[in-house]
Amino acid sequence: MAPTAIVGLVSPAGDSSKAAGSDVNGAGGAGQAWSDLAPYYEQARSREDSLDRLVEWPAQREVLGDVTGRSVLDLGCGNGAKLAQLARDGASAAVGIDVSGNFVSAARPGLELVQGDVNELASIPVLAGRRFDRILFLQSFGYATDPVRTLQTARAMLTDDGFIVLTRTQPIRYALERAEQNGTSLGEEYFSTKSYTYRTAWNEQIALTKRTYTISDLLNVFGAAGLWVETASEPQLSEEARRRHPHKQEWMNKYLGILIFKLRALPERPAD
């Protein structure tokens, strides 16, 4: 079973991954940490050389496909800017949930941005009785204190042909960072279950604790939640972006980037 909470690191190179959870303070502490860090994340994401702009969002958008007439739920939507783009692209309904409540101000038809916790999806009134064609966890799944339960709840909100897009930072990146910090080996840290505390480069006043995970941990959580992986990808910089931003390619060569999973619901088992 995967750890109950995972915290994303923010690299000095300006990686756009969200900080997403605190094993020390629990879900409430994680929510406060993200609320404090959210403005800094949005500032980093708006930079021309942001990996979110150069790599992550283009790859995520490709997996989503044509959203015309589709309903979309973004769990951990940040300020809602990505969801607003999907609304502009023709989504019939676009609902965003984020614990920070730091949302874009521009309203669009069908765009709903609501402050809420991914750990309490069943208790969020705007979601009651609704189903969605696309459900997104874009670097936000680490908020889940009970990953299987959170995914099961999301799975129940999928339409029959709907799917979940879930992204996570490469666990090898975290193992490498820990190995550099602790003077250990990559293998030791990849399989270690110890947590460690650090101060993010976004705000050195906030200490976060991260618990480790492996790729097999993620796959086991997906299966336990009744989901299967239709596709998985590891997006990289385009040739043009590599030429324009060699420092970002240097960072990617070392830390690899993110994983993108397209998840669908397993068929319900017949009752005995």
From TrEMBL:
Gene Ontology terms, MF aspect: methyltransferase activity
Residue ranges crossing the lipid bilayer per the database entry: none
Keyword vocabulary terms for this entry: Methyltransferase, Transferase
Lineage top rank: taxon: Bacteria
Sequence ranges assigned to domain Methyltransferase in this UniProt record: 69-175
Pfam families listed in its UniProt record: Methyltransf_31
Biological-process GO terms, alphabetical: methylation
UniProt xrefs under InterPro entries: Methyltranfer_dom, SAM-dependent_MTases_sf
Name listed for the protein in its UniProt record: Class I SAM-dependent methyltransferase
Naturally occurring in which organism (per UniProt): Occultella glacieicola
Species classification: Bacteria, Bacillati, Actinomycetota, Actinomycetes, Micrococcales
